[in-house]
Amino acid sequence: MTDEVVRYLAPDRGGLFLDGTVGGAGHAEAILQAGDEIELLAVDRDAEALDEARGRLARFGERVRFVQGDYADVWQLVDLGEGALAGVLLDLGVSSHQIDTLARGFSFRPGAPLDMRLSREGAEPGAAELLANLPVEELAAVFRTYGEERRARRLAAEIVETRDDSPLETSDDLMQVMERVWGRPVAASDAARIFQALRIAVNRELESLERALPGLRDLLAPGGRMVVIAYHSLEDRLVKRSFREWGRDCVCPPGVPVCGCRGKALGRSLTRAPARPSVEEVAVNPRARSARLRAWERD
Fold first, then answer.
1. Residue 217 CA, distance from chain mean position
2. What is the pTM of this model?
């Protein structure tokens, strides 16, 4: 959704923009091409993604600064004051490069290790560690909340029973457990939901998003814009709720006789409903089919 990102961010206004999930730098490149007065902070948790972005954006020289880390911690990684940014882009989820690199473990293709970490530099546990150590109820919560799986409790119980005899280390191991619970070959859509749920839990993606949104909002200058592309209903719901609340004049609880909150809206949503990829884009890139873009502008 590169065209939509550029249209809503309006980078031709100039200024400093943040791409908090730069990935392969396709969106970043389009932003920088919009004008010579544009500077960009290219942030990603994945060192491999940053290396790819450096190569693609090399021609823009000092207009780009690369930072490895979680976008939710950007104010700790970079010295930015309130109102420093003309725009923020968050393209959530994982990149095609990450999915297609078997060793990263994001895929349910045969032989993939159960890793799924966006950053492999730290000591955070990967998917195999979560499957090996989480109790039944916590595993079930992962599959129920992040995967919207009705068999979450049964799947978690089967995993715990299996790991007592044999650890789950590859995609094949988890798929075999799922097949026993499903009682049939597992559909690709079901596998995608379960593996996505694990990935969200491994990387604490919803926690990062919830923590980041108000902080990034406050880094926007007046007229600055935030664009978020979500691929999961929970992510999109969180963005929608935040943008809606920021656009209200009063956020006091019902029944409060005197307004004690900010008393005015912080900005306005630019997308009444989320923008979706075109039929043509989905035909070229089927992974874009679940993308939902929302945009917001600060007053």
1. 16
2. 0.92
